[in-house]
Write a structure and sequence with these properties.
four-stranded mixed β-sheet, 6 strands, Glutaredoxin, 26% helix, 164 residues, two-stranded antiparallel ribbon
Length: 164
């Protein structure tokens, strides 16, 4: 099984996000959209990020795969997220989370043969993937699971076994 640490992605400002630099922290990956009914989750994600920033990194991946709900440019998306929700957690450059142009990170997240955990399909905007401190996919949460749900909070607080 490979870890997420082999991936590097472009952030929304054109810089590199190197997942290997996040070793020892949990990572919550969320595909986002600015014009979705779930867009208010940005505020909750920001609050979660601030509450757990010593142990958790949240990375938003803007994607226009569902209903054309993320039509903006990277600059427009960043301006919207900052102005409307005060987002300070990292945002990646806009990608596709679905085939046929699915980003390689999302291939890893959705294919058990790649992630060693389970197959999943990105159902809609704001689906969440939790990576443990060892870089392994540990949980997949439906878009309707809110950032402060017991289900997600319990997964963030779980101890990760380093014995494999």
């Amino acid at each position: 099984m490979t870890s997420i640490y082999r991936f590097k992605v472009e952030d929304i400002g054109g810089e590199e996000i190197d997942f290997s630099r996040l070793k020892g922290k949990k990572i919550l990956i969320v595909n986002t959209a600015s014009e979705c009914g779930l867009t208010p989750q940005y505020a909750q994600l920001e609050e979660l990020y601030n509450e757990f920033k010593n142990t958790l990194v949240i990375i938003g991946f803007p994607a226009n795969n569902f209903g054309g709900q993320e039509p903006g440019t990277n600059q427009e998306i960043q301006s919207f997220c900052t102005a409307k929700f005060g987002v300070s957690f990292p945002l990646a450059a806009k990608i596709s989370v679905l085939p046929p142009n699915q980003h390689p990170l999302y291939e890893w997240l959705t294919q058990a043969s790649e992630n060693g955990y389970k197959d999943s399909t990105v159902e809609w905007n704001f689906q969440k993937y939790l990576i443990n401190e060892n870089g392994e996919l540990s949980h997949v949460f439906a878009p309707s699971v809110e950032p402060f749900s017991d289900e997600l909070l319990n997964a963030i607080k779980e101890e990760t076994s380093t014995a494999k």
